[in-house]
Automatic annotation (TrEMBL):
It holds the Pfam family Arabinose_bd. Residues 234-331 form the HTH araC/xylS-type domain. GO terms for cellular component: cytosol. PROSITE patterns: HTH_ARAC_FAMILY_2. This is AraC-type DNA-binding protein. Coiled coil: none annotated. It comes from Pseudomonas antarctica. It comes from the Bacteria. Keywords: DNA-binding, Transcription, Transcription regulation. InterPro entries: AraC-type_N, Homeodomain-like_sf, HTH_AraC. One of its GO terms (molecular function) is DNA-binding transcription factor activity. Transmembrane segments: none annotated.
Amino acid sequence: MLHSHLTTLNAVSLVLNTFKAEGLPFEALLAGSGICAADLSRSDTRITTNQEMRVCANAVALRQDIGLELGRQMHVSAYGMLGYALLTSATFGDALRLALRYPALLGTLFELSLEADGERIWFTASDYREHPALKMFNVELCLASLKVICDDLLGQPLPLLAARFEHDAPHYRTRYAERFPCPLQFQATANAFAFDKHWLDQPLPLADAVTHQAMAERCRKQNLEFTGRQAWLGRIRQLLTTQLNAAPGLEGLAEQLNCSARTLRRHLHNLGSSYQELLDELRFERAKQLLTEEQWPIYHIAEALGFSETASFRHAFVRWSGVAPSQFRPRRPIEERISDR
């Protein structure tokens, strides 16, 4: 099962806006994500990283270098309260250390760290735990957006000394030089960019001690609420994951959580979800896993996911992914494919 936690619609909105100029309907980018137009109009909507990754996968299929482009647009103002707290920090180093303190508010899929190397500081993104096929996209998005945040905080471009990436150099390598104007290394042991350590002591142009103290306290409270929601969602997901073949329903799940159905419905609403949406998400994740890793016939997978009819599973999978289950799974000998019918 993929790691999943709550995040905002920032990245999804950027994807949609980027492709809007090209005339691509947003439905194509949202396909299989469970995100609808109504969600986009709410400023407090929270989605799971799995939903975000579905939209990003749709975007990458259309344009492979989209991670660099999206990162270029992720200004510090996109991070709400945290962004204000960072901008009003006393020094550049104070701001970066504050950002590392609240990864949930930053919405990162990586473990971020500042690593000293002589006179250099490496801003490193490690421990990626999401969809393997989207790792390069997420590395590009992460490091490009961090560079933009650094530039915004300083009010000028942060001079880079080097940048390194674990993946091979892509065919659009020249675009890396636009985002990281410094010596580049691919097939490296880490994903990071380096700058001179003296920048950590650089006073920020928008520093304000009073505003910063107020914003930092609000970030602390927001982080408690946000991580609390993630813990609640994790508990719900864990319970449902073990019962996909016989889902308990909203009332049954509420009983297992020792709360009323009304309370559970309210919690899920606050998380930007519903019982059915969450069940569909977990079924979709499990279906993709079984279709990729197992050789079960389609009807067997349908039964394992709690569908009474194979046709119902096929229709649901098309709605989630845009393709039929037989098209999603790796090709197998013809005699095995016949048994699916």
